Amino acid sequence: MISERQTIGIDMKALLSTLWIFILFNVIFRDLHEFGRPGFIEEMMTGVVNGVQITEELMLIGGIMAEIPISMVLLSRVLNYTINRWANMFAATLAIAMIINNGVRDLDDIFFAAIEVVSLLAIIWCAWKWKK
């Protein structure tokens, strides 16, 4: 019988972890692209970005939200099968909601958000179809 590993040529834990790394790189570069937007650095220095007051609480929430994909890189490798599947599906769904909630402001946001969402949907699909 052909296993899941032989079918796709990679261990599912490794695949999920790699997809999370891919998503993280896209998130980082999406954020870095903002620095190239005219007036963005000046806007940041005022403490109000895109009309939103940047507070310590907002920074904490942002840090927690950023930690989800960061943690999933490791957790995808170490969690047992059942918890791993559900954690990946939950975290990817939450990440999609964060991307949608964050919105898109320009063409590069649309580009990166589309890649991130497609990659997150791939995580959900892989975790859903993953057989022990």
The amount of helix comes to over 70%
The major pleated sheet works out as: 2 strands, antiparallel
Which residue ranges are poorly predicted, with pLDDT under 50 across at least 5 consecutive positions? none
Order of strands across the main sheet? 1-2
Radius of gyration: 17 Å
Per DSSP E runs of 2 or more residues, the count of β-strands stands at 2
Portion in beta strands: under 5%
The N- to C-terminal Cα distance equals 13 Å
Q: Can you count the helices?
A: 6
Structural class comes to mainly alpha
What does the model show?
This protein has 132 residues and is mainly α. The protein is 78% helix and 3% strand. The chain is built from six helices and two strands; from the N terminus they run αααββααα. The chain has helices spanning 4-8, 12-34, 40-46, 56-78, 81-102, 107-129, and strands at 48-49, 52-53. The protein has a two-stranded antiparallel sheet with strand order 1-2. β1 (48-49) and β2 form a beta hairpin. α2 (12-34) runs antiparallel to α4 (56-78), α2 (12-34) runs antiparallel to α6 (107-129) and α5 runs antiparallel to α6 (107-129). The longest helix has 23 residues, at 12-34. The chain starts with a helix and ends with a helix. The model has no long low-confidence stretch (mean pLDDT 91).
